[in-house]
Amino acid sequence: MDIGGTLVKLVYFEPKDITAEEEQEEVENLKSIRRYLTSNTAYGKTGIRDVHLELQDLTLCGRTGNLHFIRFPTHDLPAFLQMGRNKHFSSLHTTLCATGGGAYKFESDFRTMADLQLHKLDELDCLIRGVLYIDSVVSSGSSECYYFENPSDPDHCIHRPYTLENPYPLLLVNIGSGVSILAVYSENNYKRVTGTSLGGGTFLGLCCLLTGCSTFEEALEMASEGESTRVDKLVRDIYGGDYERFGLPGWAVASSFGNMMSKEKRDSVSKADLARATLVTITNNIGSITRMCALNENIERVVFVGNFLRVNTLSMKLLAYAMDYWSKGQLKALFLRHEGYFGAVGALLELLHPS
Questions:
Q1: Cα gap 213→247, rounded to integer Å
Q2: What is the rounded distance in angstroms from the CA atom of residue 51 to the CA atom of residue 67?
């Protein structure tokens, strides 16, 4: 498990090579839990199994099976713990491998509500281990890693697979509730360069305040229908065109939400415009910090991960364009299909070599 500030990510390995003898000896609690997790795609009102991300016929701990990816909001963790208690999960395993800040924050809740101990793991170690593992097991037919070709041309921007052979060094940008940026030189040699508190949690929180939406999906749908230039003040709004001396194009944002100083313009914008401007502001800020880190660390390969990018093609294309345009083609933005699940995968891998 990876218990983040906004989402809990759960990775479940379902063995498919169970023999008739093993099945006969299986306790009913284990069968019940497996049926519940693998026969449903939704759990309660907010739990989701991302079926499109399922990895089949993996070998793990000497067994062959499928890897399932499940997520639910962190505020619904008590319901998960109650489910674990009702299904007597602690009769099968008394310890869960867990990472993320919530592994510390909610440790006592796991113990008192579900009779479970947590084996806590560092979230950045798990993140890197998970990224490298998933990339190594995903078949070339459906590449884990991809990029956007021609990011500066919306009409010809194409999604292309990318092979992460000899990946080091790379800049790994994890966009969750907040953002951490890591310079990775090998699986065991990395450092946290910096981060920012303005991440996916900021986007959703501001959208809830500004538009009245209540979910990430709602906020993104609004943003897809809005126009941020009605909210932001652009270079051309100040200069009447480009600022040629320093190569700033007229379409570049000079001041995020700068037009909202005018009551007339405030009255003319829609909630969708505000959502789009919020998305652009957060994404541009992440892109700007990432580019400066890449320059300082002399790294040309940048990999973006995290649940902020889930179903968020708008931000991915913005990041791809920003990296390409402002670096004059020197920086390539890469993305991964399993986005926010790498920390949970890294925690699961602890079962392969427990301390």
A1: 38
A2: 10
Of 343, 326, 335, nearest in space to 301 by CA: 335
Can you tell me the distance from the alpha carbon of 335 to that of 303, in angstroms, rounded to the nearest whole number?
A: 6
CA angle 95, 310, 53 (to 5 degrees): 60
* Angle formed by the axes of helices 107-114 and 77-86, nearest 10°: 30
Catalytic residue chosen out of the listed positions 123, 165, 225, 350: 123
Report the C-alpha gap between 348 and 311 in whole angstroms. 24
Integer-rounded Cα Rg, in Å, for the chain is 22
Longest dimension (CA), the chain: 78
* Model confidence, pTM: 0.90
14 part of the active site: no
Of the candidates 66, 50, 88, the one whose C-alpha atom is nearest the C-alpha of residue 12 is: 66
Dihedral over alpha carbons 89, 90, 94, 97 (to 10 degrees)? 30
Q: pLDDT of 159-206, one tens digit each?
A: 899 988 788 999 999 999 999 999 999 988 999 999 999 999 999 999
CA distance 303 to 79: 34
Q: At what angle do helices 271-297 and 216-225 cross, to 10 degrees?
A: 100
Alpha-carbon span 105 to 226, nearest angstrom: 37
Cβ atoms within 10 Å of 287's Cβ, excluding its own: 24
